[in-house]
Amino acid sequence: MNHRFLIAAAVLLTAIGASAQSALTLPPSGGNERATVIQHIGLVTVSIDYSSPHVHSTQGVDRRGKIWGTLVPWGMANLGFGTCKECPWRVGANVNTIFTTSHDIQVNGSTLPAGSYALFAIPQQDEWTWIFSKNHTSWGSFFYDPAEDALRVKAKPEKSDYHEVLTFDFTERRNDHATVAMKWEELAVPIDITVPNAVDLYIANLRNELRDSPGFTDSTWQQAARYALDNKHPAEALAWAEMANTGGGGIGRKNFTNLMTLAEAYDANGKTAEAAKAREEAMSHPSATALDLHAYARQLLAGGKKAEALKVWELNAKRFPGVWPVNVGLARGYSAAGRYAEALKYAKLALAQAPDEANKKNLESMVKKLESGQDIN
Known about the structure:
The protein is of the alpha+beta class. Helix content is 40%, strand content 21%.
């Protein structure tokens, strides 16, 4: 039995008793300050609240090299107090380390429902077991009961830079996943967190927000439709794009951006005729600029639709003759069609219009390529 754990149990009992009698706010036992790390993963909020012991004891004893396997024993331990005979480590000091998630998540590939949990660990030299216990209100693991486990997952310990104080650090942060690692002394043990329905959460949140003040303007409906399109939610994309264009009560407003989004939403729902009509309306709308049409043609060309791209660039030249970057577009369009002589003509015209040094150098390169019979796209 680990003598340090017996001493710790006695100290904790004294601290708990004093706290119950006086309800005073005193410094944490052993100088193990409480810390909280909070991370947003998209719309999900994860927090870890823990006490942070030091490698050097309060008496100044250097315990480096004696943390793992000694101060924190390998495997389960009998702490000599409470009802638990085979107890995990509390992953910190004093009261339990508490892991809270606002939504259901996956931890190392396994589902953990929304809620608060005591975070325990079974340390081993080659593999750890993380335990998420439904009983998060107890002091330490003296009364740990495996029947209260919500989840157990395996993790591989890793070499880490030296950390004097036990720390939880989110080392990876994305919209739908994150990695948090417990780091102490020269060891790190990661926990991978995934939000498998991150897009669905955003769609549901957008649906609610659009029922409030954000739903009173066309631009927010268009932004929501754009997100739904980019994340493969075609039904919502179409409904929201229609609101952006024709929503009642003065909400809807037709312009190039809203109409082009509507056209994409029609396409995503298999309504090709409606999509073509909305796209034509967008390109002829008074709000469409030379840059709008140029960017749309570039998008078509990037998608391999050379003929369609050239048509849009030619339309742009009719609507906005001589306006930058109309000649650049014609140069790209004719070059994509293999009509290098015509492309060269417009590249030279564009070069004379170049608004800055970067565009000038780019067009000079285009001219050289076209003069040698090379495509500039």
